[in-house]
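Q: Sequence in, structure out?
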Amino acid sequence: MQRRKPLPHSIILDGFIGPHQAKTARHIACAGFRVRCLLCKCGDQSLQATGYRLTNENAIRRVQPWKEIDHPNIVSVVEAFTTQEFNGESSLVFVTDYFPLSKTLTEQHSAPAHRYGKSGSAAIAEDVLWSYIVQLAAAIKQIHGAGLAVRCMDPGKIILTDKNRVRLAACSILDVVHFDRQRSLADLQLEDMREFGKLILGLGVGNPSANVQATAAIVE
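A: Exactly. Output:
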């Protein structure tokens, strides 16, 4: 019988937060847990991709350069590991800084659904939009300067904390789960800039989740 791989000794499970499909990497459903990391003596968030098995053990090493990034507009990555501690299933776990009561940009700037079930648009103040642009541009510059790419920059993966502080979340996840999909760094960074433009355009017209074609139609 194969021995179950436990949680690292530096990680203590502290409670269940809930499903995190909205705030994690695209097409990857995760569960969220509060954990305490003994390495930094602080509260963190654990994102668990249940039933996921790494096809290449070298993939988890792609997290290391992300752990070295410390920026006010990037959710810090504390640790990443695989375990079978959750009901015996193979799980991939990312431990990041935890920001309670944070909202994604989608949650903050999408109007509530009206009577026909469709979400309306929510106007955003110009000074707030400029603040987002400056903060996110600084985060992208930091990441690109470290020889990395964001790869996950839609409004459902960017969180808003107090005082209009925006932070890129879910960084490093796609570097691990898409390890075998080789793409050049230049291509990935160029895609970041395209996605950044789409994000700002969508926020500017009050529909952060709109695709490019729909957003262009709104502008016209």
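Residues 127 and 204 are 11 Å apart (CA to CA).
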